[in-house]
């Protein structure tokens, strides 16, 4: 009687090539689990040591690179902002000063119209203050409020001769930051400037101080 055929026993499952790879403790690249030397950096590897997961060193490396990149961007941004900030402030001052000169010229035009058309209907051809010019809608509401574009404006007719003279000033709200120049104008239509010191509002003679400098036409 012949013996039954032998049935082959199932062998061990094939190994997963990915699971059999670990990270080199020196460079972090993948090597075979039981390799004795890293084929990337050449360092010896203890095959009996505890192997690190392959992904961990790479995540740490990526995280570290991200921090370095973020720090570099912050440093560069800080340098650029520091370099540009003085230029931005200067550009803002120049813009405010230009708007202040334009505002005083608009006030001069409004005064001429107010007197010529007797807009307050009092039968007297006289000049007005800032509030009256605003009420007659001869100026923008912002300018009529007395504060616009980093400057404070004051306008008044002469107390002794309101039908002949008037005076207006424009002073920086923060000297050196919102503007470096103060301005003044009056019934003559001329425009003056001076640095650092604001013009006093002369309500009698409506004249500018002797140290004022005439502003050339723009």
Describe this structure in words.
Residues 50-54 have low confidence and may be disordered. The chain has a domain at 92-214. The protein is of the alpha+beta class and 218 residues long. Helix content is 33%, strand content 16%. It has a six-stranded antiparallel sheet with strand order 3-4-5-6-7-8.
Radius of gyration, in Å, reads 41 Å
Classify the secondary structure makeup into a structural class: alpha+beta
Q: Strand content of the residues, in percent? A: 15-25%
Helix percentage range: 25-40%
Please report the distance between the alpha carbons of the first and last residues: 125 Å
> How many distinct helices?
3
pLDDT averaged over residues? 82
Entry summary:
33% of the residues lie in helices and 16% in strands. The protein has 218 residues and is of the alpha+beta class.
Descriptors:
single chain; 16% strand; 3 helices; two-stranded antiparallel sheet; six-stranded antiparallel sheet; alpha+beta; rod-shaped; 218 residues; 8 strands
């Amino acid at each position: 009687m012949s013996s039954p055929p032998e049935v082959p026993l199932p062998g061990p499952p094939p190994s997963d090539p990915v699971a059999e790879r670990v990270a080199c403790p020196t460079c972090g690249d993948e090597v075979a689990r039981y390799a004795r030397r890293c084929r990337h950096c050449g360092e010896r590897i203890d095959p009996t040591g505890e192997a690190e997961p392959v992904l961990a060193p790479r995540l740490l490396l990526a995280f570290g690179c991200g921090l370095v990149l973020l720090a570099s961007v912050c440093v560069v941004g800080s340098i650029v902002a520091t370099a540009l900030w003085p230029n931005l402030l200067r550009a803002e001052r120049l813009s405010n000063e230009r708007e202040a000169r334009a505002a005083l010229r608009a006030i001069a035009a409004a005064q001429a119209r107010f007197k010529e058309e007797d807009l307050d209907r009092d039968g007297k051809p006289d000049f007005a203050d800032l509030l009256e010019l605003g009420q007659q809608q001869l100026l923008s509401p912002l300018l009529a409020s007395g504060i616009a574009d980093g400057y404070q404006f004051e306008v008044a007719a002469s107390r002794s001769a309101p039908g002949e003279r008037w005076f207006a000033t424009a002073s920086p709200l923060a000297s050196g930051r919102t503007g470096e120049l103060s301005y003044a104008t009056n019934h003559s239509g001329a425009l003056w400037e001076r640095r650092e010191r604001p013009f006093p509002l002369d309500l009698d003679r409506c004249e500018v101080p002797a140290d004022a400098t005439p502003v050339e036409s723009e």
